[in-house]
Specification:
The complex is a heterodimer of chains A (349) and B (783). Chain A has 349 residues and is an all-alpha fold. Helix content of chain A is 58%, strand content 0%. Chain B is an alpha/beta fold and 783 residues long. The termini of chain B are far apart. Classes of the chains: A mainly alpha (349), B alpha/beta (783).
Chain lengths: 349, 783
């Protein structure tokens, strides 16, 4: 009898990469739903459009790389990138902006480094940063006004024709984000005056607070399922909250902490973007430092930089630092007194 | 707990002990109910038993039975070889059929030496040594009984148990732990053993405690075995043994992990549990120890789980050691078609069997026959997404992800730095990996590569050291040679200068010129020069002093000593030549050196003669010119004779330079002949010196007396000289013969040698003529 000879171990657990990716996508859906409710059809369209572009781009690149397309598309990593981009980009951003962002992130930021698992930078954030820097007008003037504040919100067809460049965007449909508003207004007003703006709703950020809450809920579920580790999101939120509490205690100078936590892409960044496993740290201590670094950088850029929302840049900057953080945060192995932290050359023999 | 139950003060059965935790761990499907529902069965005796000689860690057992021998059940078949080894016994009575290479239980599927025993069905026990009360035995007797019984670790490693019954020399045993965790899925052998034979297990632990005298005794058992826990508690209620129930988690049954769980101590890197005062044994081993000590029964069977969907009647069997697995599982409904692989051990750490006829050994705790339902084929590996789930579950707190990256990139030094060798290969990391990467296989490969690299490094270091040492030795020898040569050259130059100075003083003499010419043709040696210097000193002494007979005598004595030295040297060379006879040309070089030495000695003696003759001449000149003249030819003739000897040596040296083994013999003869010649020359010299002494003594007397004496002395001298010449000529003939028979490469050298010799012969003949003419004129003169 011919017996198959394999070496141990023979048993395999139930977790699969494509499963994890699908869970991530699934947990963004509540947030997406609320975004659609509060900001219109733009985000939904963008998500679908970006997914399409991502799949086609990946298929083309895999063909060029002579890899089995089905095997690689099935790990859903391109879909995750596309979904995150679709959620992060402004709702009325032109179709070619999201095309550029998505295809660049898939082709350059992912496959040119070797594909899934080999990219040192978060691909979605690379695409986002590219279009933010290259098309600043398109990226800053296409944020949607919260629907409760509009008398005539754009219909689906209207939204589509705006995005696809058929009709110019009507004035009232877009407006600055709460973070942007606060940043510019507080320079010459007091916080009371600024916060009187209807865009802030009841003192937080109208619409944005619900979206962030939905992303927070989705993230907690992912942590419970062990799809993402808890150290990175907690680190990020602390890294954002603590400086905001210390330096931003005076609401008359800078945005208050609550605005930071409920506005912009904070929760999306914390639970979905920063937790991209490939580009983040691997050690548990390292993850915390990494997340904390992102939060800190986000606060600094938001408060003192020229961009209203800084998650993308903060994440990219910490992606640079992640390997070094790993080297210095190795855990103590069983049976050793100290952990072997630091580069190998330092070790005394 | 019922009201009647009153725990006695000494009973710690219900442990309130803190159970600690270890990092990581996984919770795979246990699959224990497949095989733990039925009691242990005893299969019938198989038709054949295959007993490998190595079923343990350490040296293989030494065979002590012969082919065709009938053995009884429990009879020793192979003895333990040294301290780390285990004996082997016959599981049933039968005939030793053969001792062959047979596939053994090893992941590689290799074969090993095995005893094939054909049972005779009678199952007759041999004589046993039971002991009712082990506490009446000494500890060493118990250790001996366990060793005699061939008990090895039955948890899977197979370490000789008797070694673990010796308390570690540097420390006492603080904690004795019995590992009853059985954390791997599917395996239930220890579970059923504890349920049915808890007393044996506990008694076995008591015996171990008696031998080791530990501070505390603990049994670590997982909470998925409640019946076994209850049975153990019942069996241990009168003892000091604590039953510690740990949460079910894989791999809590690993030695390092169970120690951490029960004592919160970590076994330091590179050390064994004994170094922290902990001794760990399997429950099956404890039961075996009990049977060995109480009943004298050797280890001849063990409980093995047969499980998996590929076996229709799964359960536990008390299999005889050496039972072929194909026979065993066919007894319990093995379904070949549904089973792709057979695993010895569990699904996490067991290895696949290449040959289905592999026998059961002392460490076989499970045979798993999985179908696709149990163990689906591994899915293709995807890229690592760096999720870190592997690091979360690693019980050794490693970074499996980093180890994977380094192993793949073949950066083995970085992998080692990340403590690759602390990996216990439990498989928890690859179990959780969502990309289905075969992580443990990568680590095993990396470990193998690193070990191989270290071995290669060791070899190349050794080779390099040896090479350097050899280079150093050769350089040193070369330096010594160069120094010697340089010194010789310097001394020779000095000698030449001194000689020239001496020549300037002496009157020109044709013979002397010839001799000088011949002398210059010789190889210049340091000793010769040194002797030269000494002779100069003595010459000076002679010149400064007035004619004094004692001094002359001293001079001659010194020369005699020098002559002896030359003789000795010649002997040495003779010995060397003997060596050259049996060896190759390497020895020839040595021999050449010897020859050179001898030659220089000869030269020095010659020089001594010259000096002596010169000094004596000057002395004699003052007395009798004729006498001195008479003396002169004697000495010069003898000097020539001596020179012949030296020239022969020279030639022989040249010949030896290219001596082939066939030639060596010829040259040996040549050496002997030369020796004879030298002897004769020496004799002549002695005579001459004796006659000269007498001559000198009587030189003050009448010249006629001197002449007469010189006459009488001359004749034999001339005879001697003639014989010397004859010999030289015969030598020449011999060398010519040698030349004819010589190899083409040697021809040139031998030709030169021959020519040299011819010159010498001519010179000798001239000298002889001169001597003859002188003596004739002398006689004539006298007459």
């Amino acid at each position: 009898m011919a017996l198959l000879t394999l070496s141990s171990p023979h048993a395999k657990g139930p977790q699969r990469t494509s499963n994890m990716m699908r869970w991530v996508i699934a947990m963004t859906l509540p947030g997406l739903l609320l975004q659609t409710l509060f900001f219109g059809w733009g985000n939904l369209h963008n998500v679908l459009w970006c997914v399409l572009v991502a799949i086609i781009s990946e298929a083309i690149v895999l063909k060029i790389r002579k890899r089995p397309i089905g095997f690689y598309l099935n790990d859903y990593s391109a879909v995750v990138t596309a979904v995150l981009l679709g959620l992060a980009l402004p709702p009325f951003v032109p179709w070619w902006v999201s095309l550029v962002a998505t295809s660049f992130s898939i082709i350059f930021a992912k496959h040119l480094y070797g594909g899934m698992g080999y990219n040192p930078f978060n691909p979605a954030m690379v695409g986002y940063a590219l279009v933010l820097v290259s098309f600043p007008v398109a990226m800053t003037t296409n944020w949607a006004m919260p629907l409760p504040l509009l008398e005539q919100p754009a219909t689906l067809l209207e939204t589509l024709s705006i995005i696809w460049g058929q009709t110019p965007i009507a004035d009232g449909l877009t407006g600055a984000t709460p973070l942007d508003t606060y940043k510019h207004e507080i320079a010459h007003s007091l916080s009371d005056t600024v916060l009187a703006n209807p865009i802030f709703g009841s003192g937080f950020s109208l619409g944005w607070e619900w979206v962030n809450a939905a992303f927070l809920a989705g993230g907690i579920v992912l942590i419970a399922l062990k799809v993402i580790p808890w150290q990175t999101p907690v680190g990020l939120l602390l890294g954002l909250a603590i400086p905001a509490a210390i330096l931003g205690h005076d609401a008359d100078q800078t945005a208050p902490i609550i605005l930071h936590l409920t506005s912009g892409a904070t929760m999306l960044g914390a639970f979905f973007i920063a937790t991209d496993p490939v580009s983040s740290c691997t050690t548990t201590r390292g993850r915390f430092i990494y997340g904390f670094g992102i939060g800190l950088l986000t606060y600094i850029i938001r408060a003192h930089g020229s961009y209203p929302d800084a998650i993308a840049f903060a994440v990219l900057l910490m992606n640079f630092a992640a390997p070094l953080i790993d080297v210095y945060t190795q855990p103590r192995t069983y049976g050793y007194v100290d952990s072997k932290r630091g580069p190998k050359a330092k070790e005394k023999h | 707990m019922s009201a009647s139950f009153k725990p006695t003060p000494s009973s710690k059965v219900i442990s309130t002990r803190t159970i600690y935790d270890f990092h990581g761990g996984i919770h795979p499907e246990e699959m224990k109910t497949l095989s733990n529902q039925t009691a242990i069965v005893q299969p019938t005796i198989p038709p054949k038993l295959v007993l490998p000689l190595q079923q343990h860690i350490g040296k293989p057992s030494q065979l002590i039975v012969e082919l065709g021998q009938r053995v009884l059940k429990g009879q020793k078949l192979a003895d333990a070889d040294g301290m780390i080894s285990v004996a082997l016994h016959a599981p049933t009575s039968g005939i030793i059929d053969s001792i062959v290479d047979h596939p053994i239980a090893h992941p590689s599927g290799e074969s090993g030496a095995c005893i094939v025993l054909i049972p005779d069905g009678k199952d007759e026990w041999c004589e046993l040594e039971p002991c009712e009360h082990y506490e009446h035995l000494s500890v060493s007797k118990i250790q001996a009984k366990v060793r005699e019984a061939g008990v090895a670790g039955m948890g899977g490693a197979g370490f000789p148990t008797e070694v673990k019954l010796h308390p570690p020399h540097h420390d006492k045993v603080a904690t004795l732990i019995l590992n009853a965790a059985e954390c791997e899925p599917y395996i239930t052998a220890d579970d059923r053993l504890m349920r049915e034979r808890a007393e044996e297990v506990v008694q076995g632990m008591e015996i171990m405690a008696y031998a080791l005298q530990p501070g505390e005794c603990l049994i670590g058992i997982e909470d998925n075995k409640p019946e076994a826990v209850a049975a153990l508690r019942e069996a241990a209620k009168e003892t000091q043994i604590e039953i510690c129930v740990v949460p079910t988690k894989y791999p809590s049954g690993g030695e390092k992990q169970i120690i951490k769980l029960l004592t919160d101590k970590e076994v330091p890197n590179g050390k064994i549990p004994a170094d922290i005062g902990v001794m760990c044994q399997n429950v099956g081993t404890a039961a075996a120890i009990y049977r060995a000590v109480r009943f004298g029964e050797p280890l001849i069977s063990r409980v093995t789980t047969l499980t998996g969907e590929g076996i229709q009647q799964p359960g536990n069997v008390e299999a005889l050691i050496g039972t072929p697995i194909d026979w065993l599982i066919s007894q319990y409904g093995f379904q070949e078609k549904k089973t792709e692989r057979l695993i010895m051990g569990g699904p996490m750490m067991g290895f696949t069997l290449k040959h289905i006829e592999t026998p059961i050994v002392k460490t076989t705790n499970c045979i798993l026959a999985p179908t696709h339902k149990d163990l689906p084929p591994p899915p293709p590996a995807q890229a690592c997404i760096r999720c870190g789930l592997c690091a979360d579950v690693c019980p050794a707190v490693l970074l499996p992800q980093q180890l994977y990256w380094f192993s793949r990139a073949q950066e083995y030094d970085k992998a080692e730095h990340h403590n690759l060798f602390d990996c216990i290969e439990c498989g928890a990391c690859s179990y959780v990996c969502p990309s289905s990467i075969p992580l443990v296989q990568y680590y095993r490969h990396a470990k193998g590569e690193i070990k191989q690299q270290k071995q290669d490094q060791l070899k190349s270091d050794q080779a390099r050291e040896r090479f350097e040492a050899r280079q150093f030795r050769l350089d040193r020898e070369q330096a010594e040679k160069d120094a010697k040569r340089k010194a010789r050259a310097e001394n020779a130059a000095k000698a030449q200068a001194a000689k020239k100075a001496a020549e300037a003083v002496k009157p020109a003499d044709s013979n002397t010129e010839v001799q000088n010419k011949i002398a210059s043709e010789d190889t210049v040696d340091t000793n010769k020069a040194a002797v030269q210097a000494a002779l100069e000193r003595s010459k000076e002494k002679n010149q400064t002093n007035s004619v004094s007979k004692p001094e002359e005598v001293i001079d001659l004595d010194a020369l005699k000593t020098t002559w002896d030295k030359t003789q000795a040297k010649l002997d040495k060379m003779h010995d060397a030549l003997d060596d050259a006879k049996t060896n190759n040309s390497d020895q020839v070089e040595k021999l050449t050196r010897a020859v050179e030495k001898n030659q220089m000695r000869v030269n020095q003696a010659k020089q001594a003669w010259k000096k002596a003759s010169a000094s004596l001449k000057t002395v004699a000149e003052t007395e009798a010119v004729q006498g001195s003249e008479a003396e002169k030819p004697d000495i010069s003739v003898l000097a020539t004779a001596l020179e012949k000897a030296q020239s022969k040596l020279d030639k022989m040296q040249d010949a030896l330079d290219n001596a082939q083994p066939e030639q060596v013999e010829k040259l040996t003869r040549a050496v002997e002949k030369n020796k004879v010649r030298v002897n004769q020359a020496q004799q002549a010299w002695e005579d001459a010196s004796a006659s000269q002494t007498t001559k000198v003594e009587t030189s003050s007397e009448t010249l006629t007396d001197a002449t007469k004496q010189s006459d009488t002395v001359e004749q034999p001298d001339i005879e001697a000289l003639e014989s010397a010449v004859e010999k030289v000529q015969s030598k020449l003939e011999k060398m010519q013969d040698a030349l004819e028979n010589a190899q083409p490469e040697q021809v040139e050298k031998l030709t030169r040698a021959v020519e040299k010799n011819k010159i010498r012969v001519e010179a000798a003949e001239n000298a002889l003529k001169a001597a003859n003419s002188i003596s004739v004129t002398n006689q004539n003169g006298e007459q």
